[in-house]
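@channel sequence for tomorrow's demo:
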Amino acid sequence: MQTYQVLWIDDEWKKQSDFITEAEQEDIIIKPYETAKAGMDAFMSNINDWDAIILDAKGFDESADEVASLKGLFRAIQTITEQKTRRIVPWFVFSGQPDRFNNEEFKQSIHGKELYNKSIQADKEKLFKDIKEEAGKSLETQIRHEHADIFATNVDKSTILKLLTALKTRDNKNPAHLNDIRKIMEDIFDECIAKGIISSSITKFNERSITLCDRSLQAKVPAYIQRNIHSVVEITQTGSHRTKTDQDIRSGAAPYLVCSTITELLNVILWWDGYKKANP
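structure tokens (generated this afternoon):
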């Protein structure tokens, strides 16, 4: 299922639970915040998690003890705008303030964006449609939808997003991606220790791979996964051979190595997720 993760800032969101329910029926998952500060803190700390942002025209800036005003709206717009170099996230103004809809000065202050009226059902439906349409243009959203099974695991979301972006855009001349692949593989090895598949006394990256790839473990680790693990570790571990590998990636002599190694890692991630679910 393709879902859209939407951040919503509204000082009265608790009175509008029906809106959240309606959104869920459209596969839009809304996470509400009462103040602009709380919402923008959530946005900044996990900027790649959000597909869109809904802003109320009039609300709280930093505290629920304030008098509702436009200050919070403008704070949020400024923050979203400042983060465009990191991530462009579409935002929408959803208001119950009818006096704002024909106010040209206000429309200019929200960059000429369309206003959606909370009191009009057709506006809600259009908002849902526009969120999906605009969010669907985002590379990050496309990647999350294409690899929903991967994002449903506990893999580090920021790191895997970088790798899947490289895969989608064929960014195959950047050896730094191997470091991110290794990081995720190390995380899996650490979890294997916690599950008792690898002894805690085995600390070296390569030795952990050798342990998992032992034929005696094939009942737990299928042979094709063992081959994937071996390949990922061999390509990403440090050493003199890695220098040569990096050189070949940069020069284009190994044009498919980064993408193929990412794909092998995806197999390992899904295998490990399935193993944990089958062996809680």
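heads up for whoever presents: Strands lie at 4-9, 28-33, 52-55, 91-95, 115-117.
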